[in-house]
Specification:
By secondary structure, the chain is mainly β. It has a domain at 1-110. It contains 1 helix and 38 strands. A hairpin with a 3-residue loop joins β13 (138-142) and β14 (146-150). It is elongated. The two termini are 29 Å apart.
Length: 414
């Protein structure tokens, strides 16, 4: 789309002359539409006012602008940081160049649906999908098929035609997982595996429960499902194929939604009150810690398990306030790293923890060192986030409109 040259702070633009009822723009900078015509405004005896500059009802707008009518032409002087991107004098300098995603820093710069901060596009739009996982080179997104979305910006390409569903937004993948050889995903009642290279799609489990989160543990895919009798089970299916098996049963006293995290061969289950751990081939889980109400999911690394729990001192159980905590993998008292109110599992790398708080209808992505300390805002997104993934250098997320974005981990938002 071609834009007229922007009117930046301190620049003037002149507009407006009416000949025989036809508005003709005479602009100091480029050709511009005539000022706004206000049909209902009474026409003064003499023209040349801000309300009737070049013709009756031709308004010179003053939004974020100094406006003047000079010899039948509107002249606008934009305030710093604002611009007249639509070339229409009637609404003044209508664009905030610091935050407008369609006109970020310049009238001609669009962030492709992403975020604009301080005049810079901070999050790059990658494509669409209902669930994502990532490695160093690609994001793998479910959109009725599995697509590769390139970190380097190459065109998207299909990894595999998963199930051909056209209603993927409504019945898309509930969860995905990734190792160095395969992508795993659950959709349309099946748990599937697709090689990153050549090879056929394999069905690891049929009758797969909708909404179940999948994780990798050792040489198995694990998930949680509930029997017809209400018993909740941690299930596992071998990566090389074979029947699904029960890894363990949820503790009898468990209540609330069961949450799942894994690292190496270890599985961690939270039930809204306590955290349990087990090896993937163990029979019984071991209680590790009291979690408190968990706002989001669990994540684990080689030493700790992390989650966001509700605060017991800030009102009702429905309160969105909480804190990011961690506990040693062999159990103990959880330690608080930061205030948080994320409903998603945190993302953990070698030294830092990232999470997305819900604020003002959007998401604020923050990070803190694993030992705690200063909380840094990495970025903001105008819509709620529905999932996150990472590589060693970037964060990726999908929002509630199924749009996938990427952002450098090292970034500090202004």
């Amino acid at each position: 789309m071609a834009y007229p040259a922007p009117v930046q702070a301190g620049q003037l633009v002149s507009r407006g002359l009416v000949i025989g009822g036809l508005a003709v723009a005479l602009a100091v900078i480029g050709l511009r539409p005539v000022a706004a015509r206000v049909a209902s405004a009474p026409c003064p005896a003499s023209l040349g006012t801000l309300q009737s500059c070049g013709g009756c009802g031709d308004v010179c707008g003053s939004t974020h602008a100094g406006a003047a009518c000079v010899e039948g032409q509107c002249q606008l002087t934009c305030e710093p940081g604002f611009a007249d991107c639509d070339g229409f004098a009637g609404n003044g300098c209508e664009v905030d160049l610091a935050s407008d995603g369609a006109h970020c820093g310049l009238c001609s710069r669009s962030c492709g649906g992403g975020l604009c901060e301080a005049g810079s596009c901070t999050a790059r739009f990658m494509g669409s999908g209902s669930a994502i996982v990532a490695d160093e080179e690609n994001v793998y997104a479910y959109r009725g098929e599995i697509l590769r979305l390139s970190v380097a910006g190459a065109p998207e390409s299909p990894l595999v035609d998963a199930d051909g569903r056209e209603d993927w937004r409504r019945a898309g993948a509930s969860s995905m997982a990734l190792n160095h050889e395969n992508v795993f995903w659950s959709a349309a009642g099946r748990l599937r595996l697709s090689p990153l290279g050549d090879g056929p799609v394999q069905v690891l489990a049929a009758g797969f429960p909708a909404g179940s989160v999948i994780r990798l543990a050792g040489k198995s895919v694990v998930w949680i499902e509930e029997t017809l009798g209400g018993e909740r089970l941690v299930m596992r299916a071998p990566l090389e194929g074979g029947p699904a098996q029960i890894a363990c049963r949820a503790p009898p006293a468990s209540h609330g939604e069961l949450l799942l995290a894994t690292h190496a061969r270890d599985v961690f289950v939270g039930d809204g009150h306590a955290l349990y751990g087990l090896a993937v081939d163990a029979a019984e889980p071991v209680k590790l810690a009291v979690t408190g109400p968990v706002l989001g999911g669990l994540e684990a690394d080689s030493e700790h398990v992390y989650w966001v729990r509700g605060r017991s001192d800030v009102g009702t159980a429905g309160s969105a306030r909480g804190e990011l905590v961690r506990v040693a993998r062999d159990g103990g008292e959880p330690s608080v790293l930061a205030e948080a109110r994320s409903k998603l599992p945190p993302v953990v790398d070698e030294t830092r923890v990232f999470w997305a708080d819900e604020e003002a209808g959007g998401g604020v992505i923050r990070r803190v060192n694993k030992e705690g300390g200063e909380v840094v805002v990495v970025g903001r997104h105008p819509r709620p986030l529905r999932g996150m993934a990472q590589s060693s250098t970037h964060l990726f997320w999908v929002d509630d409109r199924h749009r996938v974005f990427m952002l450098p981990k090292s970034r500090v938002a202004k």
